[in-house]
Structure formats: C-alpha cells, structure tokens
Amino acid sequence: MSTRPATAEDLDGIMALERASFPTDAWSDAMMREELASAHGWYVVVEEGGRLIGYAGLRAPRGAADADIQTITISSGARGHGRGRALLRELLGEAERRGIRDVFLEVRADNPVAQALYASEGFAEVGRRPRYYQPDGVDAIVMKLVLSGWIARHSVDAADAGACT
Question: Which regions of the chain are under pLDDT 70?
Fold first, then answer.
C-alpha cells in the first residue's frame, strides 16, 4: 500500500470510486476537479498494485484555525484492512502541518463503521444535521477533533513504540 498526494490525473479513478461508494449523492466531476485544484484543499490517494483503491480530502485554508475532512473512501473490496485509518491519519498530519486547531467532519448516521473509526481516533459528536444526505434523507452526525489532543496521544504512542525496540 502506498499513499501520495492526489493530482488532476487521478480524477477518473477518484470519480469511479466516488460513484461506486456514494451512488445516490456522489460529487460531480467538476466539483472534484475544483477540490483537487484548490489551494484550500489537500487530497491523498492510496494505491495497490498500480490501482487507485482509496482517496481522502481535507479542506484547510492556510491560516485558519479549523479544517473539514471532506471525504474518505476505500473501494469495497479493500475495506477492513486499516487503509481508511491510514488515510485519516494522513489528513490529520496535513492539518497539523497547516497549524489547524480543530478538525470537523460529517458522517452518515447509517454508517456505524465510519463513526467507530472516527471515535477511535478521538472525534466526538457535537451535533446532527437532520436529513443532510439527499436524496436518502439520512442525518449527518457532526464530529469534532481537538487536534492537539490527537497529536499528544500519537506522540505518546510513537514514544511507547520506540521504547519497545
């Protein structure tokens, strides 16, 4: 598995995953193209065997105190092996590099696997947006992470791992 920053050349692969993962509310090609080109965004892809199997995006204007995770998507056949967590951590690392304090995201209320992933990394529910995801009418759970706490926890985890070698 290798991750790298996304480029405009990844658009077709990203959109194939987008449409497969979000059949009723996928972003348009034009929206994703704008995201990939935006100075406020940062997208990363994961590849295996030369094939794009996941992508994730962060919206974090330089100089802002908060950021939003726009999306994390892994192809259905590649889920359950830590790739989503790896992409999430890539996004949080970029948020740290940009000096972000708080990271927000919306997750579908009918996606307990994603909710559990975010909670395991320290995100907490701070609100709900009723019927946010259309046309399905599914609520969005709004979650927030105080990035300094995540950084401190991961610094301790890294130090503990180093002490074991």
Answer: 1, 156-165
